[in-house]
Design a protein that fits this description.
By secondary structure, this protein is α/β, with parallel strands linked by helices. The chain has two domains: 208 residues, P-loop containing nucleotide triphosphate hydrolases (Rossmann fold); 146 residues, 3-Layer(aba) Sandwich (Rossmann fold). The chain is built from 15 helices and 14 strands. Helix 2 packs parallel to helix 3 and helix 3 packs across helix 4. The protein starts with 13 loop residues before the first helix and ends in a 67-residue tail after the last strand. The C terminus is likely disordered. The protein binds adenosine monophosphate (AMP). The site of adenosine monophosphate has 14 residues, from helix 3.
């Protein structure tokens, strides 16, 4: 937690602190204490923030403050665009935003892939002030001219590292070129700032940004207890897993495996032991994956088994226990996996099983965490394997550096592009520059 006692200390409009108070949120988290004052005075920002640190409010509060206090640059175009890598995260952000705008005249729209395009185009035609979107579908709307971003004032990238890992660089560059108002402010959030592509994208998107790094990589997830056990072979790992599930206290657990075959085998094993288990497979359709995630999030299963590939594009939910049945190939993936636990100050446990095949991956994680790791033992399940002595320490793989693209010139649209646009003269800001927060009651 931060030193700031309350949100008004950060320069936040008292009306917003009142809304937060009603939600039981009264003391800023560390990322909020640093990001909110920086963002509300208009600086561009690149911030590292782990899942569960309160990062969503760290950018939604400056969003709200801008909408409430500053005059719009355009009466038609959205003022704020929030991009997230996954539909699930976009939905969570939208829900949090709705809780802030409810009771105001501000309109927010959610634009996700896989949903009806025309309905979204209709909603965008009603001149929303804020759009929360995944990048692919947003670019479709730009292509179809159901959305214009000339007047965009604030561009926010949440989990920028994941967006780039998922291959959205091209879409982000397009959006950056189109939303080219010279007064645009840009905020970029990423689980890690040690990501070459994130830094390269930041150079393209941000103007003299302030940098906020909440703890170094080794200090991240301080509220997550990380445990490691040696394992000799597959059967040994299974025995360790069964013991862990018998002895740990948890409501729900996510288990990560290296292969789909292991996911299926473990799913059968654990279902056979009476645990309500769901497995995500990389071959499932998005609809089936969403169904599984929905039922897991409603608590209908205790155990979710997945590979990194199968869980790509899904924002896995918060649980108190994560088990790495196999170590992830990339050290950064370890951070993503264990970030599913320990949200907003709650304690989480991340247990990793390390066999001979996991050794190189384990060393990469260890050097990434910059922490020496102690291995635990479970009674009767002691491993003979104790690591590989004097093996060369593998380096943390650096993502490929994509060439920094110079900020392109403003794209000026031909007047006929805008011919068919709605001309509603929407009064969203009152004469003193303050947006009316409460709807006027009928007399
Ligand atoms: P996030 O990191 O944005 O996903 O937030 C994780 C959770 O923390 C969400 O459920 C938020 O509602 C909650 N949260 C955010 N900020 C605060 C705060 N200052 N105090 C207490 N809870 C918070």
């Amino acid at each position: 937690m931060s030193n700031a006692e309350n949100f008004t200390d950060l320069g936040l409009d008292p009306r917003l602190s009142t809304i937060l108070d009603h939600q039981g949120i009264s003391r800023p988290t560390e990322i909020q204490a640093l990001a909110v004052p920086t963002a509300i005075v208009g600086h561009d920002l690149i911030a590292s923030s782990k899942t569960g640190s309160g990062k969503t409010l760290a950018y939604l509060l400056p969003t709200m403050q801008r909408l409430m206090r500053q005059k719009a640059l355009s009466k038609k175009d959205p003022r704020v665009l929030i991009l997230t890598p996954t539909r699930e995260l976009a939905k969570q952000v939208y829900a949090q935003l709705r809780s802030l705008v409810s009771g105001t005249q501000l309109r927010a729209v959610l634009v996700l892939g896989g949903e009806n395009f025309n309905d979204q185009a209709k909603a965008l035609g009603k001149d929303p002030h804020v759009v929360v979107a995944t990048p692919g579908r947003l670019v479709n709307h730009l292509d179809e001219r159901s959305l214009f971003l000339d007047g965009l004032e604030l561009l926010i990238l949440d989990e920028a590292d994941r967006m780039l890992d998922l291959g959205f660089a091209e879409q982000l560059n397009r959006i950056n070129q189109i939303a080219s108002h010279r007064l645009r402010q840009t905020l970029m959030f990423s689980a890690t700032l040690e990501h070459a592509e994130v830094n390269s994208m930041a150079k393209t998107l941000l103007k003299s940004p302030k940098r906020i790094a909440i703890g170094a990589a080794n200090a991240e997830h301080a509220d997550i207890e990380k445990r490691f056990y040696f394992a000799d072979h597959l059967d040994h790992k299974q025995a360790l897993l069964e013991r862990i599930l018998d002895t740990e206290t948890y409501q729900q657990v996510i288990i990560f495996t290296a292969t789909r075959a292991d996911t299926e085998r473990l799913s059968q094993l654990l279902s056979g032991k009476g645990l309500k288990t769901a497995a995500l497979s990389g071959e499932m359709s998005q609809t089936d994956r969403n169904k599984i995630m929905d039922s897991f999030s409603r608590g209908q299963q205790q155990v979710l088994i997945t590979t990194d590939v199968a869980s790509r594009g899904l924002d896995l939910l918060q649980v108190s226990l994560v088990v790495n049945f196999d170590m992830p190939k990339q050290a950064e993936e370890y951070v993503h996996r264990i970030g599913r636990t320990g949200r907003a100050g709650a304690k989480g446990v991340a247990i990793s099983l390390v066999g001979p095949k996991d050794w190189d991956a384990f060393k990469r994680v260890e050097s990434f965490l910059q922490q020496s790791v102690n291995f635990g033992e479970l009674d009767g399940l002691k491993a003979k394997f104790k690591g590989v002595k004097d093996a060369p320490v593998a380096k943390v793989p650096k993502s490929e550096v994509s060439a920094a693209v110079a900020r392109p010139k403003r794209v000026i649209k031909a007047p006929q592009d805008r011919k068919n646009r709605r001309t509603a003269n929407l009064q969203i800001v009152s004469d003193d520059g303050m947006a009316p927060l409460k709807k006027k009651k009928a007399d």
